[in-house]
């Protein structure tokens, strides 16, 4: 029997309805979630992604600002904008669309974003929070992969998960999230000599390499869950992932398609992080107010 499809569009819709409910409550309490999206340059794919992010914000009742700059924007000017947004109380999340033009140091830009507003989860501090199991923001793509796996109903405890790819934004955080869910995790990468030796032992495979046909049917254990993070083009120019979908579908128990799997979840988890950020601000404000109203009266004034 072919594998069951894990539908990222459908799961996104469910999660976005939940996010919209939280946003409505926050807005009623005076804390409408706000996301700032910054795009530098004219990369056509990035233009589509930022447009989709702004639309997604409107759909769930967030306030959003889109700041578009020419490719020759200076690094100093971008850092100044981030500083202003860090101090803007209507903004709970700041997202700088990647990739940035080459003259701008991406790490410097990412580290300039206040950790409390790093809804992409890309900064070193956010990564540290993930390592230490602290409640920071998780990078959206691996966070979305976890939700997709969770939707299968399979408990990861004691399962063997293999992550193919070791990028800071997908592979490494993915491995940590799987580890937090009590899986036994192996990370494979471009220097792994025989990938199939590892993937054939895996109950869950997450492919995040950026090369099509990296995972073929002969490399998959029957009944495995396969998550495809790749976004590549085939010879006909059609979008495809890292997994040979047609072949692997005959072996796996669950599989994500490309398009329609991990991609839509990336934007959904960005919304999730942003609503969570607004929630934390509201919680902190309440804490502060509670402390003020709960204060012992100054002697002689009561
Ligand atoms: N600051 C960030 N930059 C980038 C991120 C990110 O998470 N934060 N991720 C990617 C791009 N990206 C979001 O920004 C993104 C990529 C793909 C999709 C998506 O829905 N893909 C669709 C297919 C789209 C198509 O037809 O071309 C799918 O897989 O179904 C959403 C978001 C790099 N930059």
UniProtKB/TrEMBL annotation:
Keywords tagged on the record: Amino-acid biosynthesis, Histidine biosynthesis, Hydrolase, Methionine biosynthesis, Multifunctional enzyme, NADP, One-carbon metabolism, Oxidoreductase, Purine biosynthesis
Source taxon at top rank: Bacteria
Pfam annotation, one family: THF_DHG_CYH_C
Record domain Tetrahydrofolate dehydrogenase/cyclohydrolase catalytic: where: 6-120
Keyword Transmembrane helix found: no
Domain Tetrahydrofolate dehydrogenase/cyclohydrolase NAD(P)-binding: 139-280
E.C. number(s) listed in UniProt: 1.5.1.5, 3.5.4.9
Bilayer-spanning residue ranges: none
MF annotations from Gene Ontology: methenyltetrahydrofolate cyclohydrolase activity; methylenetetrahydrofolate dehydrogenase (NADP+) activity
Pathway the protein contributes to: One-carbon metabolism; tetrahydrofolate interconversion
Residues the record lists as binding NADP(+): 165-167
Catalytic activity: (6R)-5,10-methylene-5,6,7,8-tetrahydrofolate + NADP(+) = (6R)-5,10-methenyltetrahydrofolate + NADPH; (6R)-5,10-methenyltetrahydrofolate + H2O = (6R)-10-formyltetrahydrofolate + H(+)
Coiled coil: none
Family assignment from sequence similarity: Belongs to the tetrahydrofolate dehydrogenase/cyclohydrolase family.
Role this protein plays: Catalyzes the oxidation of 5,10-methylenetetrahydrofolate to 5,10-methenyltetrahydrofolate and then the hydrolysis of 5,10-methenyltetrahydrofolate to 10-formyltetrahydrofolate.
Subunit: Homodimer.
Matching HAMAP family: THF_DHG_CYH (MF_01576)
Name listed for the protein in its UniProt record: Bifunctional protein FolD
Organism taxonomic ancestry: Bacteria, Pseudomonadati, Pseudomonadota, Betaproteobacteria, Burkholderiales
